């Protein structure tokens, strides 16, 4: 919410600065306010009245609900050990309503106990190893070929004696 507030303040100050420095925006805003100013004022007043009446209605119904909760007879329950000797008259109405609701829930039957069963231990298995590497060899008669082992290509001589003879002739 703080970020939204900062963003709204930043954009509002930006619009004010633009209004102060832009004569065209000043002319537009002044024309709209002169033509529709009374309509804008009436809508603002009606909106504010509507919101205040709605909030007042919600507040009144909330007070009625709290009064109904506070005035309900409480079931006597044993007080907790070490409770203070303050009377319930000093409590805030919301606190009194909460205490009354908690006393009502305390008189209800408790939940059945939860049974916990342990699962039998499962044997731990090692992950499977990598698959065996395949080797593919293509051997033509006179051209050196490439042998692929794993992922690294390796050159392979097909006939070493023929290579020596070619080198000696050069």
Give your account of this protein's structure.
The protein is mainly alpha-helical and about 170 residues long. The protein has a domain of about 90 residues. It contains 4 helices and 3 strands; from the N terminus they run H-H-H-E-E-E-H. It has a 3-stranded antiparallel beta sheet, with no helix packed on it. Strand 1 and strand 2 form a beta hairpin. The radius of gyration is 44 Å and the shape is flat. The protein starts with a helix and ends with a helix.
Radius of gyration: 44 Å
Helix content: 40-55%
By DSSP, the count of extended strands is 3
The termini sit apart by 85 Å
Q: How much of the residues is beta strand, in percent?
A: 5-15%
Key descriptive features of the protein:
3-stranded antiparallel β-sheet, 170 residues, 3 strands, mainly alpha, 4 helices
A few lines on this structure:
The chain has four helices and three strands, in the order H-H-H-E-E-E-H. The protein has helices at 2-21, 23-71, 93-106, 160-169, and strands at 135-137, 145-149, 152-156. The longest helix has 49 residues, at 23-71.
What's the arrangement of secondary structure elements?
Blueprint: H1 2-21, H2 23-71, H3 93-106, E1 135-137, E2 145-149, E3 152-156, H4 160-169
Helix pairs in contact: 1-2, 2-3
């Amino acid at each position: 919410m703080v970020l939204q507030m900062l963003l709204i303040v930043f954009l509002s100050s930006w619009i004010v600065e633009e209004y102060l420095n832009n004569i065209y925006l000043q002319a537009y805003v002044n024309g709209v306010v002169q033509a529709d100013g009374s309509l804008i004022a009436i809508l603002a007043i009606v909106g504010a009245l509507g919101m205040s009446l709605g909030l007042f209605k919600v507040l009144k119904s909330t007070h009625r609900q709290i009064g109904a909760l506070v005035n309900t007879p409480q079931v006597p329950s044993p007080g907790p050990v070490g409770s203070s000797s303050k009377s319930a008259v000093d409590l805030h109405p919301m606190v009194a309503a909460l205490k009354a609701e908690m006393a009502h829930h305390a008189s209800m039957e408790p939940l059945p106990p939860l049974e916990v069963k342990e699962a039998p231990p499962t044997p731990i298995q090692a992950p499977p190893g990598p698959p065996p590497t395949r080797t593919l060899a293509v051997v033509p008669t006179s051209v050196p070929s490439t042998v692929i082992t794993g992922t690294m290509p390796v050159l392979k001589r097909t006939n070493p004696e023929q290579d020596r003879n070619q080198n000696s002739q050069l």
